[in-house]
Every structure is written in C-alpha cells, then in structure tokens.
Amino acid sequence: DPAERFFTVYRNERNIDDKQLLSISFDNFVDLAINGGKGAGNSNLESRLRYYLLTGCYAQQLTYYFNNFDTGKIQVLFFDQLKSDPYTFLFDFCQFLDLDPSFFKTYEFTIDNKTISYNSVVFHKAAYLANRFLEKTLNKTPKIRQMLRSFYCHINEEKSRKPNMSDYARSALKSFYRPHNQELRKLISTQYTDVKLPDWVS
User: Fold this and answer.
1) Rounded distance between C-alpha atoms, residue 47 and residue 36, angstroms
2) φ and ψ at residue 23, rounded to 5 degrees
3) DSSP string, 75-141
4) What angle do CA 109, 110, 113 make, to 5 degrees?
5) Helix (H) or strand (E) holding 2
6) How do residues 168-194 score in pLDDT, each as one tens digit?
C-alpha cells in the first residue's frame, strides 16, 4: 500500500534523527509532499518529498519495465502476499526464477526490520551505525542478528507509544494515490491474468 509505505518512510527518516523532519508532523509532511514540496523551506527537502511520494506511483515504474523488457521476464509481486503467506510468495518467486524452493519449507520467517519508536535517540543512532558497520557479518549469522535485535528492542523500544496514521493523512494519501492505483490495476490486468491484486489497488 503506497500510503502505508509513505508513512513508513516518514517514521524511518525521523528515527535516524533527520533534523529536517523532527519538527514536521506527518499530516504536514503529507500536505507538503502533495503540494510538490512547496513550503518545505529548502530545495533538498522539496526534492525528497516529491521523490518519497512519487515512489508509490507504481504504474509509472512498471510501465518503464514493460516498455523495455519482455513481460514474460517480469514478475509482479505484492508485499501484502509476503506478509500473509510468505511461503507461497517465495515458492512462486523461486519457480519464476527456476530455483529450488524447498529451502523455504522449514525456514522460520521473522520480521527483522520492523519500524519501532524508541526511548533514546542517542542509543538508537549508535545501534543504527553499528548495524551498518556489521551488516555483512550479521547477514551471515541470522540467529545472532535476531538475538541482538531482541535485546535492542527490549532495552530501547517505546512500547507505550505506537504511532498511527491520522484519518486526515490516510484520506489525503488515498485520494492522491487512487488514480495511480487504478492505473496500476489496469496496467497489470492487461499484461497478466493470474496476478492476485490486493484491496488497495482497486
């Protein structure tokens, strides 16, 4: 869902202590983005806001690939299915790539990059930098990564404050993305007959 993705981008940028966003509410963030970044205060933030918003216009991106590659070499998958049925999602993906999907039959799917609210900005920045520095090593040792992640969340996660998107922001984003989602539905339907579309595409 491009609206949810946009909300996640906002939270992620604030979580890495982006000083340009710390004083901007999400409702204001949405308004600025829909207005093309005008009023953001500087050209850097204006261009970022436009980029964040337009990245959710998936039909535009898919059109480029359909125009330059054979559709038989393109598989369209949705994150919604990965969340609800990760094994089927990866089974279909492996089949498309002619890979053996049996690896995932006993694989334990976990969420390692969940966006959270935190207690200490300093601790979060230190953990963020440490993760970037050790990423290659941790990718080879997923159990250790999970242990460190669990420890970090236990120490620094703000459990009493789970941010939600306001009704105003959700309505504004859905209105903005509605024609783009309809374009996406039409584009996919003309190219494929077996792609299950999530509700937000309608």
Assistant:
1) 8
2) -100, 5
3) ----HHHHHH-HHHHHHHHHHHHT--GGGGGG-----SS----BS-HHHHHHHHHHHHHHHHHHHH-
4) 135
5) helix 2-15
6) 999 999 999 999 999 999 999 888 878
Question: What is the rounded distance in angstroms from the CA atom of residue 168 to the CA atom of residue 29?
Answer: 12
Rounded Cα distance, 8 and 146, in Å:
21
Q: Of 114, 17, 3, which Cα lies nearest the Cα of 53?
A: 3
pTM exceeds 0.85 for this model: no
120 in Cβ contact with 158 (< 8 Å): no
Cβ of 128: how many Cβ atoms within 10 Å? 13
Residues of the chain with pLDDT under 70: 16-20, 40, 110-125, 152-154, 156-163, 202
Task: Answer whether 49's CB lies under 8 Å from 32's CB.
Answer: yes
Provide the pLDDT for residue 112.
56
**pLDDT at position 117:** 59
Question: pLDDT value at position 119?
Answer: 60
Distance CA 202, CA 192 (A): 16
CA distance 46 to 40: 6
Distance between start and end Cα atoms, the chain: 11
In this prediction, residue 63 carries a pLDDT of 92
Distance CA 116, CA 158 (A): 8
Spatial separation of the C-alpha atoms in residues 97 and 90, rounded to whole Å: 10
